[in-house]
Amino acid sequence: MYRKIAKNTGIVSLGTLTSRILGALRDAIIANYFGTSGVLESFLVAFRIPNIFRDLFGEGFSDAIATPTFSQIAHDRKKLVALGEKVLSLLTVTLAVFTLLGIIFAKYLVVLIAPGFLTDPEKFAMTVSYTRVTFIYLFFIGLISLMSSLLYALKRFFIPAFLPMLFNASLIVGLVFFSRYFQHYILVVSVIIAGLIQYIVVYWGLRHQHLTLRFRWGEGFGDPQIKTMLRRFFPRVGASVVYHLNVFIDTVFSSLSWIVGEGGVAAIYYANRIIQFPLALISVSLARVIIVDLSGFGGHKNMDEFKRLFVFAIRNMFFFIVPLSIVFLFMPYEIIEVIFLRGRFGRDSLGITGSVLFFYSWGLLPFCTVKLLVHSFYSLKDTVTPAKISAIALVVNVVLSAILMFPLRISGVALASSIAASLQTLLLYRALIGKIGPIPWREIVYDTVKLLLLGGVIAVVVKVFWVWGPDVNKYWKCGIDVILGGTIFIIIGMILRLDQFNHLKRWILPKK
User: How many domains does the chain have?
Assistant: First the structure.
């Protein structure tokens, strides 16, 4: 089982990595075509509005509600199809209503999200027009997420893993080959086409698994499982509200330039993009794979296997994140320099963004651990506890940001987020052991000591090479540092006899 989990996590991680690479290319092409023009600003605001609802009806509903429920009945295809049809029917109607309301009230939503656009009637009208189009994508992505949860329940991860790649590919192709036909509408048109392509691909994936869903309106609301899913969905709405409040509050504090300094909003954005990369590549990928088996163990009250799988996930997440966190702490400015230092992103921008990344790096491990803990609660069909603890963390984040931004400026906002995530990790862990009993941490603690030593050695070596190594192009130096750090990681990891390397050798080397 654990070998399959590692393999499936690798598939999801590869899909995430591919999507992120295409996303970087997409952003570069968008910058080339639109720069920081009003067209781009209108699109970003328009796309942000349905994305708020996407967090609820898309990935939020899929990860927290649909996948755990479908996973527990995946062994019975008849039950899975019957429940899938009822959920799909209810979600289709719900999404249609929200899409229609979004199109009708787009004007007022834009006023709420971007009131400053009212001073520019042309930009405001363009944003309203874009918003109406992008709400159609909400309809597609909600259905796509639900159908992806059925594939997750069947332990078919390849198609859901690579669906985001199709979104970025659609925008790239649209911009490069069709922008002259659609002009400033090319971005929203590409988004709709991306949604249609993703829907066709995931629908084909279900058909390939001999899973055909029909519209069955009228049977859903009376189904006990549907009622249970809806009861669990409302706390998930609360958690989503807390998340968006966190983003909003960080934006508010970052915008107080007379306290935190100029460029605070941009520094938070750029540093957060760096932190989100390992979070998505490792923690989110792992969480989406293990929730299927965790839901099965939770449904059958098999807490011993539940805890073994949870420990397996934590150990493997620590294996990557602990050394990486130490490297981030040692080299925040160097990382920002390689990725962003060019054009109008000068030395002043490097200074504030590097400082923000340093303080975010203290929270990288808690950020990743929270993701696994929250999905563990979801697998136990508990969406209330994570929502309550998220609200506590939000309050702590607000208070600490208000205090720390005075001595540390914009870096204080980042440090507040890291401390709040650490507290959230502790509270979630205490609540989890209250549900499933004590978790054996001895092996994890032993591994963590080794990983701290390993990460420290890697960080010192790559830092020394960066400072005193040959004076070559920064990209060449970065490439050499990556190879050097990876080599040290493998050699010392094998010397320290980390289990992950032993498993890797057994999987790769032929059996005698």
Answer: 3
